[in-house]
Amino acid sequence: MTYRSPLDPVALTASLVAIDSRNPSLVPDGPGELACATHLAAVLTSWGFAVSLQEIAPGRANVLARIGPAGCTPLILNGHLDVVGVDGMSHAPFAPAIRDGNMYGRGSSDMKGGVAAMCVAAARAAARGSLASEIIIAAVCDEEYESIGTRALLAQGMQATGAIITEPTRLAITPAHKGFAWIEVVLHGRAAHGSRYDVGIDANRHAGLLLAALDRYEHDVLTARVHPLLGRASLHASSIAGGTGWSTYADRCVLHLERRTLPGETGEEALAEVRALCDELTAARPGFQADVSLVCAQPPLDLVSDAPLIASMRAACTANGLEPTIAGLSCWTDAALFAEAGIPALCFGPGDIARAHSATEWVEVGDLERATEILEAVCAGWGR
Ligand SMILES: [Zn+2]
């Protein structure tokens, strides 16, 4: 892959998409991000960045690249290099092709297009000598699984005046997204011969009682919790497994629940609410017994509306002829980790989350260029 110009977001996107960086924690034969990170590190070095390639785990790497005046607290542009699996895709995943103004390929939308845009934006602003603040490019690994990349970055004590995560938002300024909580419920029954209703306790049917209670909880409680940018809170039963054979009462049933949380809700609160439903069933049904635990929780994102980062993004959009749009994102992103670390964060990038992880993934070539111009204006104006 050769670049049409040294600072070309379309060519850089294509070169990143062409390198398989499937997340090995999601896809057993995924190679990880190291090759893609090594390529990007070389490109950014050639553009004048001070680059370090940090191997976070075997085959998993972050690229940290600094440009502009050092000594002040920087602005971070963050994006992930890992992609999800490619089974069932309708086009070649790692042979990027442009048709009708769109570039097709795994990761084109989620989110190598955004990574390319942020890199070229910072490089162009620096090349014009217009940076008042240092800019740090953080191209990280593993966002699609456990975010070990951004977590490692923040664990190093990274400070910043703001963080823009260039996830696909269709060029909407996105200061809010949901969090999530994974809740495991283990229902305990008592194994017995299928004829011995007097002895057996059916863990599977007790799971059914809980599912019915959860259905009412979603309908009565969660639908009433609404965020102006994110819609309502929600819950679904991700998986259920219990029982050993036709003629045996199930002694155990494991139910996995996912709660998508709104700003103001925590994983612990979501857990407590499921626990309360189980307590009601324990009181109402002899033999009902459940252990409820929180497996994992990630916080929501909700940047205050008067944050300088939002004002800066708005001004940059307007200056580039794009009416600024403020929107929420349904999915979780690394932005929440920056917010949790006290760094004001939002998402803004080319592409559409609706195409992420799907059989056909593409990014609009025009939006790659436009996102780059807007991010360049933010970089140039930051710290003034
Ligand atoms: Zn993503």
What does this structure look like?
By secondary structure, the chain is of the alpha+beta class. The protein has two domains: 9-177 and 301-381, Zn peptidases (Aminopeptidase, 3-Layer(aba) Sandwich), CATH 3.40.630; 179-298, Alpha-Beta Plaits, CATH 3.30.70. The protein is 32% helix and 25% strand. It is built from nine helices and 18 strands. It has helices spanning 9-17, 34-46, 108-127, 148-155, 203-220, 267-284, 308-319, 335-340, 365-381; strands at 50-57, 60-67, 75-80, 97-99, 102-104, 135-140, 162-165, 173-177, 179-188, 226-227, 231-232, 234-242, 252-261, 290-298, 301-302, 326-329, 345-347, 362-364. The strands form five sheets. A six-stranded mixed β-sheet has the order 1-2-6-3-7-17, sandwiched between helices. A four-stranded antiparallel β-sheet has the order 12-13-9-14, covered by helices on one side. Helix 1 (9-17) packs across helix 3 (108-127), helix 3 crosses helix 9 (365-381) and helix 5 (203-220) crosses helix 6. The protein is elongated. The mean pLDDT is 96. Bound molecules: zinc ion (ZN). The site of zinc ion (ZN) has 5 residues, from helix 3. Zinc ion (ZN) is lined by residues 80, 110-111, 143, 167.
